Amino acid sequence: xxxxxxxxxxxxxxxxxxxxxxxxxxxxxxxxxxxxxxxxxxxxxxxxxxxxxxxxxxxxxxxxxxxxx
Length: 69
Prior knowledge:
It holds the Pfam family Gly-zipper_YMGG. The chain is mostly helical. It contains three helices and no strands.
């Protein structure tokens, strides 16, 4: 996977994992991030599984880096 795709997928997953006013759990953010990562990877013609994995990690960890609170 190219570095640009990894960065774009991670950024989209982090932003997708940020949901306001519903207090999502780690699992909620991971699922949202996985969906966003899979869509971005599919659109760019890359591995959907890898995109979903990167997105899930980004979504689950977005609150740990204080990006979404």
